[in-house]
Specification:
Layout (H helix, E strand, L loop, with lengths): L3 H7 L5 H54 L14 H8 L6 H8 L8 E4 L10 E5 L2 E4 L2 E4 L9 E6 L4 E5 L11 E2 L7
Antiparallel strand pairs: 1-2, 1-7, 2-5, 3-4, 5-6
Helix pairs in contact: 2-4
């Protein structure tokens, strides 16, 4: 019959210190990986927002071309008395449903996280049409405010020419300034 001492030598167990060392190594590795994971998550969300804004641009461009063909002035906010409400009414329900329009305009569940610029169908193609809140600065040096939907990690911009730009880090394109309409239809 085997003794208890011989069984212990065959099945050596970890000591408490060895377990604490392993746990601390795992914690250090997790703390190193966490910023990379959150950064990748933010970039994915910014890319989704840029895609949604691009779709809003396509809908607006379609409505504008149809309006101009029928003798109207267009469907960009600047063509419609600089009104976010008039812009959304030009798109909904003829080009998409109100739910789809709202989902494309919401960033992290809030329409106020999207800034709609007072542009018209004949604005300079480099003028900002849609962007996430928290993007500020001059046209050649954009900055991201910590209060924006993505904090200081970046944002999305779509120009009147249809360029969809995901901004992350310090990549700032040269854009034309204009007047911005807040999502609640009040000038900022």
């Amino acid at each position: 019959m085997k003794t208890l001492k011989s069984l212990r030598s065959k099945f050596a167990a970890f000591t408490l210190i060895e377990l604490l060392v392993v746990i601390s190594i795992i914690a250090v590795l997790a703390s190193l990986a966490l910023p990379a994971i959150t950064g990748a998550l933010a970039k994915g969300q910014i890319t989704q927002t840029t895609s949604n804004y691009r779709q809003l641009y396509v809908l607006t461009q379609s409505a504008s071309l149809d309006s101009q063909t029928a003798g109207g002035s267009g469907a960009f906010p600047g063509d419609l008395s600089n009104s976010v409400t008039a812009w959304s009414n030009a798109i909904v329900p003829n080009y998409c449903s109100a739910t789809v329009f709202s989902n494309m305009r919401n960033v992290k569940g809030q329409p106020t996280n999207t800034l709609v610029w007072a542009v018209s169908s004949n604005s300079d193609p480099s003028t900002i049409f849609l962007c996430t809140a928290g993007i500020s600065g001059t046209s050649s040096n954009l900055t991201f405010a910590a209060t924006g939907p993505y904090a200081a990690k970046g944002g999305s911009i779509v120009t009147c020419g249809g360029s969809a730009i995901s901004l992350t880090g310090s990549n700032s394109p040269i854009l034309t300034n204009g007047s911005v309409l807040c999502a609640s239809n009040q000038a900022q």
